Amino acid sequence: MAVDLLLGLQWGDEGKGKIVDVLTQNYDIIARFQGGPNAGHTLIFDGFKHVLHTIPSGIFHKTAMNVVGNGVVIDPVIFKKELENLDKHNIDYTSKLLISRKAHLILPTHRLLDAASETSKGKAKIGSTLKGIGPTYMDKTGRNGMRVGDLELDNWKEKYDALTAKHISMLNYFDVQVDYNLKELEAEFCKGIDKLRTLEFIDSEEYFSNAMKNGKTILAEGAQGSLLDIDFGTYPFVTSSNTTAAGACTGLGVAPNRIGEVYGIFKAYTTRVGSGPFPTELFDEVGETMGRVGNEFGATTGRKRRCGWLDLIALKYAVEINGVTQLMMMKGDVLSGFETLKIATSYNYKGKEIKHLPYNIEPENVTVNYTEFKGWKADLTEMTSAESLPKNLIAYINFIEKETGVPVKIVSVGPDRKQTIMR
Ligand code: IMP
């Protein structure tokens, strides 16, 4: 069997958690392959809202197995809190949650380094979630990191102490003050490690290889979005992992020719949290309304998300680099009530009209040309069939399908599992 992928096509927060939850019934295994507690995947069902950061969104399904792959970075402190939240809801995860030995650990000092690095950047800050993501991936590629498998070694504490000491000395290089109590941080970390140890550690590449041989269906759940990819995103305002399709191969140990469907998720408009260019950003009442109606606040940090029109140039770019085979459009309901809707269809760049994403998309380099669409008034949130969708929304979707060459298979009309229309 192939591994299907589910990826965000914008700057994250597209609603991946909800769709994984909807699709889980079709899969035996759900796997996370990159990112870490910077992600916040929200699932709403049976009157409860659950936010997952590191744990795959299949954990609420009765039988699905959930794997945290080698490409993920795990903060044992946050992970423990996530598990305790599951305990509160009587979710039995011990037999359903497996952790790759090759996943890297976020140490308390990684978080301190993240804070020092961001503060020292001043106005040029990335807008990081400050979860230690960048410093942990730096240690990974710098070949200094600590991995989950190290916890099975007798000398893991020595390794931890050496890396922590190095980080503390690195903190001195920054021209900023970071207050911390290492003893307290370490005590919390060790409790997190104890909790992590209650789960099974696996060699995930071997696990997936056997699962595929045994005909198991696997869904890889991406985090963040394609425009935050370390290589193809709006660098340096990106995260530190490959959020695109290729990241699933390296982040799970699955060969490229084993990838099957690639589900691409996008919002009917665009949002972004943190700093960085955003050509279709709105600074007016329309943007305010999108944010208010769409409840656009970060699931991890609570920060207000920036809002703007759908950027088709960026969407086509994401469809292409990921090899998307099916699209899923989220939050169409938020656009109800606007007289006119706009989709960015070309940029003006260095005196020319272009239809691809150029190297620089900062406001001084790019202005946007839009195609306008008639809006619709109807409330979509109670709708249950594709036939009931307003004709102006269907025209909006048809345009996206024609331009990207990929069918829009799901239209989400609200946060609940039930508010999902299949086309
Ligand atoms: P970091 O990965 O926490 O260092 O953050 C780097 C950039 O990616 C910042 O602009 C964050 O706001 C953004 N980012 C990280 N994770 C997410 C996410 O899950 N959703 C949306 N934006 C994210």
Descriptors:
423 residues; single chain; binds inosinic acid; alpha/beta; 10-stranded mixed sheet; 4-stranded mixed sheet
Descriptive report:
With 423 residues, this protein is an alpha/beta fold. 30% of the residues lie in helices and 22% in strands. The chain has 11 helices and 20 strands. Strand 16 and strand 17 form a beta hairpin. It is globular and about 65 Å long. The structure holds inosinic acid (IMP). Inosinic acid (IMP) binds next to helix 4. Residues 11-13, 38-40, 126-129, 131, 133-134, 223-224, 228, 237, 239, 273-274 line the site of inosinic acid.
Layout of secondary structure:
Layout: E1 3-8, H1 16-23, E2 29-32, E3 41-45, E4 48-52, E5 65-68, E6 73-74, H2 76-88, E7 97-100, E8 104-105, H3 108-121, H4 133-141, H5 156-171, H6 182-196, E9 200-202, H7 204-213, E10 218-221, H8 245-252, E11 259-267, E12 270-272, H9 285-293, E13 306-308, E14 310-311, H10 312-322, E15 326-330, E16 340-349, E17 352-354, E18 366-374, H11 391-404, E19 408-412, E20 420-422
Parallel strand pairs: 1-10, 1-11, 2-5, 2-10, 5-7, 6-8, 7-9, 11-15, 14-16, 15-19
Antiparallel strand pairs: 3-4, 12-13, 16-17, 16-18, 19-20
Concise summary:
With 423 residues, this protein is an alpha/beta fold.
Care to count the β-strands? 20
Bound molecules: inosinic acid
Characterize the largest beta sheet: strand count, sense, and whether it forms a barrel: 10 strands, mixed
**Which regions have little confidence, pLDDT < 50, spanning 5+ residues?**
none
Cα-to-Cα separation, first versus last residue: 25 Å
What structural category arises from helix and sheet content?
Answer: alpha/beta
| Broad shape | globular
**What spatial order of strands do you see in the largest sheet?**
9-7-5-2-10-1-11-15-19-20
